[in-house]
Amino acid sequence: MKSRTFALALATALVALVPQAQADTLRLLTWGGYAPQNVIDLFKAETGHDVEVTLSNNEEMISKLRATGGSGFDLAQPSQDRILGPQLEFGIYKPLDLEKIDASLFIPSMLEATKVNTTVDGQIYGIPHIWGTDGLVVNTAAAPDVDDYIDLCDPAYAGKVSYRLRRPTLIAFAFSMGLDPFAAYGDTAAYEGILSQVEAKLRECKANVKTYWGGGDEITGLIRSGEVVAAMAWDTGGWALNAENPDIRFIAPASGAMGWIDTFVIPSGGEADEAAYAWINFVMRPEIAAMITASAGNFTASQGADELVDEALKARYQASFPAEAVDNINWYPPVPAGLESLEGAVLDRVNAS
Amino acid sequence: MTASPAIRRITLALLLAPLMLWLGLLVVIPHIDMLLLSFTEKTGVRQYQPGLANYRTFFVEPVYWTIFLRTALMSILATLLTLVIGFPVAYFIAKLARGRSKAFLFLLCLVPFWVSELVRTFGWMILLRETGLVSGALQALGLVSGPVELLYNDAAIMVGLVYTSMLFMVVPLITALDSLDDSFIEAGYDLGGSGWSILREIVIPHAMPGIVSGSIVVFMLSLGNYLTPVLLGGKDSLWFTGAIYTQFITRFNWEQGAAFGMLLLVLSSLIVWLGLKLSGQTLSRTVG
């Protein structure tokens, strides 16, 4: 497209005017808590590389990289299911050089699974960093019998529940209704069938919802104040609230918690690959990974790091995840390109209903 | 010594350059790019072709024009409310207050704008939420028996919008009313006019350019607002800018988002044009 070329030429001209970024500054596009200042300081002391952190979420990371054609950042951390589709559509990542990564630092099963899910045209684009789940955060004193996503629609809790109006909610409700959306990922017609059932449920459930939450702080605030007694939310938020109020617990739902793994990917326009690989190998060391767990609240794919994690957090994790609940986690498979527009239309209709 | 025509022309060009660069680089070129993008259809992975599908979606899928209609109607209502609340305030500041109290009252209108819109909106959230100040005060006074939720509804959006836009209505109104000579009002009374007829026949016609320019600004600000509806409206926060944001950021559907953006531009211009026609004003008179 002509105007794109023109805009690109213009952008190049503008970039030429500003001083070039130092090659040893790592521009990291990540989530809150994944790059705490103490880790950055240690990294700087050891390698001399500066780290410039930009906080974001999956959709914004992809949109930012798409807007610049994959430049502007040297390392990004989208979830493992959001690599295949965007790579096929927009080509915003570059293949990883696994030679430069110390594989012994990773939990082998998690490393292998992520490699499989992030392989595009025979090349690997992502390796795992932090994993966690979406489940139910419940104030057990006020809502004793919520143990699956569908229970959020129980009229007994009208006006006191919350969830996000995003794709994880669609998937979670589908599982909770006894459907298997992941099995239908490859079959558009079947997937649309599942989506329409979920849409009907979410429309019906809307009256029950206090508000659709947007950010992690928003939902913790709502639960802490008691305005919301049950919500679909991230495990970390639930554990943090549990430390303040033992009645509030993170529960792995009966139909399975939704498991995500945030990865390391190198954007196609990344300019500091050496620093990026150095950062990956640095933060995966067990003692550093434990520091990141302390800051992010989630466990990492670092081999042996969970031994070093704070006992209180470990206890909360074990209370939420007995062995069978871990086996029951629904791990997100890669999202095929184009699926998001189907889901988007459903979410818009639910919002407007 | 007078400057030669060539030097004068260069001076003029240099003076205009920042404005032209600003308009060209930040307004015209992005809009042309958006326009082209909006006429692009996505047919498959990395496959695009020119077409009208994005505009068709807006008119065929009821969700989107419903959202637009709702946004436009709520914005018009917010504009009217701002005018009704702002007019007496502006009249008091322009005509009744004198000296330091005039400056002080004007400053009071300005103070909320010293903090960002986000902070102002969070302020309203703290006041209106179920465990918030208003709910607590009502319970303490015994007016309600349990906590009341005042947030996450259209009324909360309206409060936020009116609060956010008040200054932009009051300032043009004060300017317009300031220029009205008090002797006209006195003459009106001398000729036996009532307060109401003087307001209708003298004050409002004189203030009309201020009313119209204030209304245009408030309407556009409300229509283009993103934060207030999203934060205060909660699950019912359907605002057209929100739909545009969603298309661009969470759906990666820039083509659709660009079409919505263009439609917002065209339809809102249309509404402003209609408003000018209905009130018998012209843009040049309002601005000039």
CATH superfamily label of the largest domain in chain A: Periplasmic binding protein-like II
Task: Report the radius of gyration of chain A as a whole number of Å.
Answer: 21 Å
**Lateral strand order in the biggest sheet of chain B:** 1-2
What is the annotated CATH architecture of the largest domain in chain A? 3-Layer(aba) Sandwich
Q: What pattern of helices and strands is seen along the backbone of chain A?
A: HEHEHEHEHEEEEHHHEHEEEHHEHHEH
Q: Specify Rg of chain B, calculated over alpha carbons.
A: 24 Å
Tally of distinct domains of chain A = 2
Give helix % range of chain A. Answer: 40-55%
3D structure, described in words:
The complex is a heterodimer of chains A (353) and B (288). Chain A contains 14 helices and 14 strands. Chain A has helices at residues 2-17, 37-47, 58-67, 84-90, 108-117, 167-176, 188-205, 216-224, 235-244, 273-283, 286-296, 311-320, 323-327, 339-352; strands spanning 25-30, 50-55, 75-76, 93-94, 119-120, 123-124, 127-139, 161-162, 230-234, 248-251, 258-264, 266-267, 299-300, 330-331. In chain A, helix 7 (188-205) packs parallel to helix 14. Chain A is globular and about 55 Å long. By secondary structure, chain B is mainly alpha-helical. Chain B has a single domain, classed as MetI-like fold (Orthogonal Bundle), CATH 1.10.3720.10. Helices cover 77% and strands 3% of the residues of chain B. The longest helix of chain B is centred in the N-terminal third of the chain and has 35 residues, at 62-96. The model of chain B has no long low-confidence stretch (mean pLDDT 90). At the A-B interface, helix 1, helix 3, helix 4 and helix 14 of A face helix 1, helix 3 and helix 11 of B.
